[in-house]
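Example (one chain per record):
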Amino acid sequence: MLAFVPMEYRYNRFECQGQRCSFMYEERFGHPETNIPPGTLFEKLPDTWVCPKCGGPKRNFQFWSQYV
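Predicted structure:
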C-alpha cells in the first residue's frame, strides 16, 4: 500500500548535462558549500548560480527524478 506524501515533503533532483559532469543538485540537501540551504527548490536558485563541479550555467541542468 502506498502512503500519500504531501507535496511539501517531495523533493526533486536535477542533473548537470555539462560534458563529463553529471553533478546532481538535490533540493532536499541544497548545497551548503555554496551557501544554498537544504530545502531550496531548484527554481528558487538565482539565475547566476552555476554548477559547483564544472561551472556550467543553471540552464544546463535537467530534471532527473522526484523523491520523498
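Caption: The radius of gyration is 13 Å.
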